[in-house]
Write a structure and sequence with these properties.
Blueprint: H1 4-16, E1 24-28, H2 34-38, E2 46-50, H3 59-63, E3 69-73, H4 76-79, H5 83-93, E4 129-133, H6 140-147, E5 151-155, E6 167-172, H7 185-194, E7 222-223, E8 237-238, H8 252-281
Parallel strand pairs: 1-2, 3-4
Antiparallel strand pairs: 4-6, 5-6, 7-8
Helix pairs in contact: 5-6
Length: about 280
């Protein structure tokens, strides 16, 4: 659900740049996500705003001002592969170079804080980082549209085992590539610290599948015997030919009741977190 990327950003900045003041906003067309997003245990308030990705003109107004870092999370393939979206993304990246990051406690000083009225894309500062997180390994159609507007991808996943567009940074076509961390020595040790093992999932590449299939083809695959790299036995096994039938689909009324219950549970959790924070601020009284 929306907001988890912002939680990850907050954890990163808290660890490496604790003096930077954060304002986190999740923008989504489905307002049902709001209580889930706002219930996440972030140290700073996580705001939710309804927004349509096709409406680039209102992006910065919805966010409350210029955006330093943005993640297009699991919406690019289905909703943003259009010339209109490519146009406003290009205009945004061509904006002026942003100034220094705002340090905590300095909001309102010259060069810092959030503006009350966002400037149009191309006039407001460009983002420092614009990322795509996707389920699909092949986004060539949408990336082709972006290329028409002077935007190219920097692939953040190793391409040696085939094309993989699931994690991208978007930059202007004449921008230099970021310097990758060396795989050996100090760089390799840092990579080990920053990367979760096998995330994003890449094991399927050894068997010729595709990440966008969500594991459907893997359900009936046969695994060969032998040992893995650590010497553990990998006995041949095969999924049974007849998989269990899926549970019956709930009626519209049942689905509505279940969704209402989930939303109420999220609201209750949010209220409990708020009460806990207020208690801590009062010194545990």
């Amino acid at each position: 659900g929306p907001g988890f990327e912002l939680l990850a950003f907050e954890c990163f900045f808290r660890q490496h740049y604790p003096v930077v003041e954060l304002h986190c906003v999740s923008l989504d067309l489905a307002t049902e996500w709001a209580p889930y997003c706002e219930a996440l245990p972030t140290a700073v308030p996580l705001r939710f705003e309804p927004w349509d990705v096709r409406d680039g003109a209102s992006l910065l107004a919805k966010a409350g001002g210029p955006i330093d870092y943005a993640v297009i999370s699991y919406v690019f393939h289905h909703y943003m592969e259009s010339d209109a979206c490519a146009q406003w993304l290009g205009a945004w990246l061509r904006g002026p170079t942003p100034g220094p990051l705002v340090e905590a406690g300095r909001d309102g000083e010259e060069g810092g804080g959030l503006s009350a009225h966002a400037s149009p894309l191309g006039t407001a500062p460009a983002p420092r980082g614009l990322f795509i997180s996707s389920r699909y390994e092949d986004l060539r159609h949408g990336l082709g549209l972006l290329a028409r507007h002077g935007v190219r991808p920097v692939r953040l996943i190793d391409q040696q085992r085939g094309r993989d567009d699931r994690q991208l940074a978007l930059v202007l076509e004449d921008a230099p590539d970021p310097t990758p961390l060396p795989a050996e020595g100090e760089g390799g040790a840092l990579l080990d610290q920053l990367t979760f093992e096998n995330v994003p999932y890449e094991e399927h590449k050894r068997r010729g599948g595709h990440g966008g299939n969500f594991g459907a083809k893997r359900a009936r695959e046969e695994y060969a015997g032998g040992t893995d790299g650590a010497g553990r036995d990998q006995r041949a096994r095969q999924m049974p030919p007849d998989l269990p039938a899926p549970p019956p689909k709930p009626s519209a009324e049942e689905f509505a009741k279940a969704r209402a219950a989930r939303l109420q549970a999220a609201r209750d959790r949010q209220a409990a977190l708020l009460a806990e924070r207020q208690k801590e601020e009062r010194g545990g009284a």
